[in-house]
């Protein structure tokens, strides 16, 4: 792991692989860390891509900013990281909250985007009910820690049937959730509760876009992916069977095959 001080916080990240193919920046969701993308890093580096996988501030090995961290803060951190690494343009993608950070990145830093990957995410602004829920959850995590919450949501993070069928995967996902600093998770929840509507941003996107969703995602179902696809008609959409909210972890073979096909077809290496 590498680390760099950017914008008042230490950001941990991995920078893997050669640089023959277009660089890919992958953004984890809540409450995970950069290792969520391990299966994708392996597949991408084997096919010649440089892959950057950061820990968002407050998560993994990155520093914690207590209070409230907006999606714009995360996006600006990542733009600064690409600048530090000398990357002028990348395919930017994320899952769940990471997908929303990807949309915020497109809104704030479109000149850095060569393509988008939107996995198991949604575009509308948070509802009032959602704002209240996220703020209450932030309070709970600060008071109780991550363990109880992790146990409650594992059967939604993964398709419920995969929790028993894939015990090693479930254990890895639970481990990431339980290791997250509650202060970082709470700050992200409070900021995410105030997220803007990204539908206009998506409607203006002209770069290649891959929309991917687990067939049995309980948080952001296939209907949410279809709504994004209607906003971005030129996008490619893939539904991953046998997966819930984290198809890249639950079905890495299927996910990676579709990802590599998207990159090879729509985002070829520069001449």
UniProtKB/TrEMBL annotation:
N-terminal signal peptide: none
Tell me the Gene3D superfamilies matching this sequence. alpha/beta hydrolase
Task: Name the SUPFAM superfamilies on file.
Answer: alpha/beta-Hydrolases
The record places domain AB hydrolase-1 at 22-250
The protein, known as: Pimeloyl-ACP methyl ester carboxylesterase
